[in-house]
Write a structure and sequence with these properties.
The protein has about 100 residues and is mainly α. The chain has three helices and no strands.
């Protein structure tokens, strides 16, 4: 299964928003985040994760732009047929062996 750039872009955008929140909280109100011994190191790590999410988002945007934003096109074989009907028509009622 290949990663869809739309999914990776959404994931990295969400990570960017979250890590921005964590970075700002560590800089302005670190006492609300419990269990951190070294606030400066935690803020530096949050900034590194933020940059990683931003880089992933930019790469995803590049692949969306490169592919033209196209989604997967399905062969629907006309307006009145759906995908399930197409698949069933190929082998419906077919006998695999001539056992009778």
């Amino acid at each position: 299964m290949v990663c869809n750039p739309h999914v990776c872009g959404f994931y990295s955008f969400t990570g960017t928003v979250f890590m921005t929140f964590v970075y700002v909280m560590l800089g302005s109100q670190p006492f609300f985040i419990v269990g951190i011994e070294d606030v400066a190191a935690a803020q530096q790590n949050a900034f590194g994760a933020l940059l990683t999410f931003v880089a992933t988002f930019v790469i995803s945007l590049f692949f969306i732009w490169k592919n033209g934003g196209d989604e997967i096109e399905y062969d629907v074989a006309g307006d009145d047929n759906n995908r399930l009907n197409i698949d069933l028509k190929r082998d419906y009622g077919a006998v695999q062996t001539d056992s009778y």
